[in-house]
Amino acid sequence: MKHVLVNWVGAAFGCCVLVLTFQVPAMAKTGTKLAEQAQKAAVVPDESIYQIYQNHSWLWGRNGAGFFAVKQREFDAWTSDKGLQGYGEGIWFIPGGGKLCYRAQWHGSWGVKGSMTCFEHRQAGKVIYKRKAPDGEWYIFRSSHRNRGDEITKLKYGDYVTRKQKRIKARQ
Prior knowledge:
2 domains, 40% strand, elongated, single chain, ten-stranded antiparallel sheet, 10 strands, 3 helices, disordered N terminus
């Protein structure tokens, strides 16, 4: 029985190695193809960027969220990384060229740190591609058929940030 189990485990391991041998180059090829498609796509107009993000919270899973308020283009966020909680306060803006940026002061156990982050958007038909500027990898932000796995589904209308941000501020 032990011999059969060892052979089965060995065969399963061999199959996994074989699958990965063929899958990794295919995935790299897919990433390259996606980048080529995004580069050929049109820049998303500023008004469309505004409509996507205005008064929406971008939910980052258990790691935080950011809220893009219309009022004075305020950007508020909270974050939790490896048990360290913090919050960000700043502004968001659309500099053109399909970009969305936010500049914030991040507060946490590490002190205060300022940063600016930008994302670039391109569109081909109904598909919107997105990447962290200037050299992040392109990914599909919105599919032509609205897939549950699309990043755009992490944008929820309303403020899902302020309550948690206030709790984190009160503790610091």
